[in-house]
């Protein structure tokens, strides 16, 4: 019998992979340390560290599939941790406000992005992708700031988290429509209804069903004989729900967030927080540094691209803020401001939408560069503003 040859080529890449992981983690934590000492949001230091070691400056590390996997694990464990700090009853209290924030925070950026692109002569398909890239909020960015400032228990934080879940479902539906138009010039209504049904079914079945299950069986994570610690079944649940969410088109972080909420209902919640802490310390820096690695500064040598970046960033920030503030204004002036600013970051979400558009040939390299730049700038702007608002009496 002829056995397949061992993957020697793959093995020879392992030292390079380990070196890149070492450089990224070290740089991210140096950035973290510097910004802690400056009393600024540490994730900004981690993102800037990614810019410095990436192709934009020194070129020590190139974005690659391995780093992308670590980055995805980073945001998954970040939202799992956020879920551990969140109760379903807390989200239910702000459900109406969160829905308004999510809906208004989608409509205004979509309209502004679409008509702004049309005004400068872009096609309908390109304009739709620009609008879609401005829609979804990166809850991972805001969550990290709220965690750093120990503000996850506030009503504004719960509103942001609830709105982000609604925002993600709406963004998924919008993206399905935009991709359908780009592929066929029309929308498959049946497929769209399936997407909506799967998304809502997942949220209801997993969120409410899972929480009710652990309330009735609080020792469920101690039951498996294979686990010396209940952490392992909890992590399996986290990765499983993240994978299912990604498979049906939702962001993987929604599954991780729901998993954290389910685990939070068990009696030994605080033990879980202690055990998950090392994972939270290790993986999220890869997520923030990877955003920085994707920045390409050379494209901004063109004055027209630079002007477009400034314009798109302003539109993205102001329309998202206005929509979210409008939805949250009944909460009072300060909390509405916090919610509005907290919904601004686009992070990896805008980059993903732009990548889909580029892959389908609907947007060109310059538009892609502008959207990536906007995603990074909104990610850098929001944490500082949010920190000042939360610290203000």
Instruction: Report the helical percentage.
Output: over 70%
General form? globular
Number of domains: 1
Calculate the mean pLDDT score and round it. 83
Class inferred from helices and paired strands: mainly alpha
CATH class, anyone? Mainly Alpha
CATH topology assignment: Na+/H+ antiporter like fold
Number of strands: 0
Low-confidence runs of at least 5 consecutive residues: none
Rg over C-alpha atoms, rounded to the nearest angstrom = 21 Å
Strand content: under 5%
The number of helical segments is: 18
Oligomer: single chain
Largest sheet: none
Distance between the termini: 75 Å
Level-2 CATH architecture: Up-down Bundle
> H/E order of the elements?
HHHHHHHHHHHHHHHHHH
Short summary:
With 393 residues, the protein is mainly alpha-helical.
Written description of the protein model:
The chain is mainly α and 393 residues long. The chain has one domain (77-270, 300-391): Na+/H+ antiporter like fold (Up-down Bundle), CATH 1.20.1530. The chain has 18 helices and no strands. It has helices spanning 8-12, 14-37, 42-53, 65-84, 88-93, 95-119, 124-133, 139-148, 155-184, 189-216, 231-247, 252-264, 269-282, 284-293, 303-328, 333-342, 347-359, 365-391. It is globular. The N and C termini lie far apart (75 Å). The model has no long low-confidence stretch (mean pLDDT 83).
